[in-house]
């Protein structure tokens, strides 16, 4: 729910409208009480016009702010459309959760609503009632209008900056890095601990998904409680971000003591395990370690499409992917183990391996950028950079991708200079895999 509220455009503007109505109703009442008690030094700074002038000011503010709000919304929609068509549909989350956009819309709508609310309290001399002009309220409306003008300038500057691909890649990289640091520990576990991960027996109980969608989050506390209640070990072998189909297994469970499950225990365990998995209709970064890499890969592939043909953007995206992969290589990607009070392993949560993450970042750019030497060169550099951060167990995966890059380059009709440069970079990857320095770079 927190992630859904953060990525929607309406919550903050809706809150601004509610606050504007509240203040627009309460502040004129305060005006009535302190109208004759304002010190002369302060009264000179308040609105001093009559009812007609107050109505004109408030009407002008309300009319201009609703027009500016429509302009702001139109610019936001155009930006979203451009980001979706030019870069990647999965970048829309980055724009929709932009606090600048949300705050700007909230301020404009709040100012418009406040001006209308105060306008209804301005009273001319009618029916024997004395005229009333909420001087403080009109002054606040004027100040809000000035702040809105300044905010519009800042918003346009921010929009022009954020629409650049470099800023988008920076934001995606920052969000992905924050997710990695939040979910993964610095150092990997010992080999013995990795070897001690429980394996499901052949007759393990399948745990089907309750509904179709993308696995967004796993409720670890609920899953651990279900496993303890059933005296079982639960394995979830689908990572957050995986596509789930209703009725298909997402994992398995088996009794801790070897005794078969009772019928009621089986049904309750299956139901509670399915309830601990949250599905969404889209990929989300809440627990998905690979979400940032997927966004960067989408940008790279989109840039390499014939309709766009922007290899520079693809190279920049691969640079960010390389930085994330190097960070992931230093993190613990082994399955997450949850233990009961006695220290026994009860829940095993699978995580993506470095091989899977490297394939996500390299496979599609290699396929669609095969005819571009700059892309192949950046892929070689990515593998070399990752090799310097990898362990002995991870290096065969890097070597396998190097073989694919070499074969792809060999199949292209490149200029001899380009071919020699790529060969030098590939040799540099091999030297980095052996830990020798400096690698050969042509």
Task: Name the features.
442 residues, alpha+beta, Aldehyde Oxidoreductase, domain 3, three-stranded antiparallel beta sheet, 17 helices, DUF2254_membrane, membrane, transmembrane helix
Describe this structure in words.
- The structure is a single chain.
- The chain has 442 residues and is α+β, with helices and mostly antiparallel strands.
- The protein has three domains: 2-163, no CATH class; 203-280, Aldehyde Oxidoreductase, domain 3 (Alpha-Beta Complex), CATH 3.90.1170.30; 289-331 and 351-433.
- Helices cover 60% and strands 8% of the residues.
- It has helices at 2-6, 11-34, 40-43, 51-86, 92-96, 99-119, 135-162, 165-183, 191-195, 220-229, 263-275, 291-303, 311-329, 354-368, 373-387, 395-410, 416-433; strands spanning 205-208, 213-218, 232-236, 243-244, 249-255, 277-280, 336-339, 345-349.
- A hairpin with a 5-residue loop joins strand 7 and strand 8 (345-349).
- The longest helix has 36 residues, at 51-86.
- The two termini are 52 Å apart.
């Amino acid at each position: 729910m927190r992630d859904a509220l953060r990525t929607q455009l309406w919550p903050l503007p809706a809150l601004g409208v509610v606050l504007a109505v509240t203040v627009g109703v309460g502040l004129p009442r305060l005006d009535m009480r302190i109208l004759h008690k304002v010190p002369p030094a302060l009264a000179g700074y308040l609105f001093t016009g009559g009812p007609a002038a107050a109505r004109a000011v408030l009407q002008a503010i309300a009319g201009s702010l609703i027009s500016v709000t429509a302009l702001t919304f139109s610019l936001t929609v155009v930006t979203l459309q451009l980001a979706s068509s030019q870069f990647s549909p999965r970048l829309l989350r980055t724009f929709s959760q932009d606090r600048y956009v949300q705050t700007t819309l909230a301020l404009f709508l709040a100012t418009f609503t406040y001006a209308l609310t105060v306008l209804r309290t301005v009273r001319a001399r009618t029916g024997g009632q004395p005229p009333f002009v909420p001087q403080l309220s009109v002054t606040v409306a004027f100040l809000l209008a000035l702040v809105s003008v300044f905010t519009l300038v800042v918003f346009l500057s921010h929009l022009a900056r954020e629409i650049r691909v470099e800023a988008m890649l920076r934001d995606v990289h920052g969000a992905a890095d924050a997710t990695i640091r939040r979910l993964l520990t610095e150092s990997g576990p010992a080999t013995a601990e990795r070897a001690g991960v429980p394996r499901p027996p052949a007759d393990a109980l399948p745990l089907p998904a309750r509904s179709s969608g993308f696995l967004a989050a796993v409720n670890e506390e609920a899953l651990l409680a279900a496993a303890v209640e059933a005296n079982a070990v639960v394995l979830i072998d689908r990572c957050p971000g995986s596509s789930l189909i209703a009725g298909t297994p997402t994992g398995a469970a088996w009794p801790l003591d070897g005794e078969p499950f009772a019928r009621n225990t089986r049904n309750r365990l299956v139901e509670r395990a399915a309830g601990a998995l949250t599905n969404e209709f889209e990929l989300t970064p809440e627990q998905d370690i690979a979400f940032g890499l997927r966004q960067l890969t989408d940008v790279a592939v989109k840039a390499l499409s014939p309709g766009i043909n922007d290899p520079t953007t693809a190279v920049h995206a691969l640079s960010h992917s390389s930085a994330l992969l190097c960070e992931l290589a230093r993190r613990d990607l082994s399955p997450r183990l949850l233990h009961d009070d006695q220290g026994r392993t009860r829940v095993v949560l699978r995580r993506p391996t470095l091989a899977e993450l490297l394939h996500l970042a390299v496979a599609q750019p290699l396929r669609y950028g095969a005819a571009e030497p700059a892309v192949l060169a950046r892929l070689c550099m990515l593998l070399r950079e990752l090799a310097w951060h990898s362990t002995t167990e991870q290096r065969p995966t890097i070597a396998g991708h190097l073989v694919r890059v070499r074969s792809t380059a060999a199949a292209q009709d490149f200029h001899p200079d380009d071919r020699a440069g790529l060969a030098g970079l590939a040799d540099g990857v091999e030297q980095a895999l052996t830990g020798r320095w400096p690698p050969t770079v042509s």
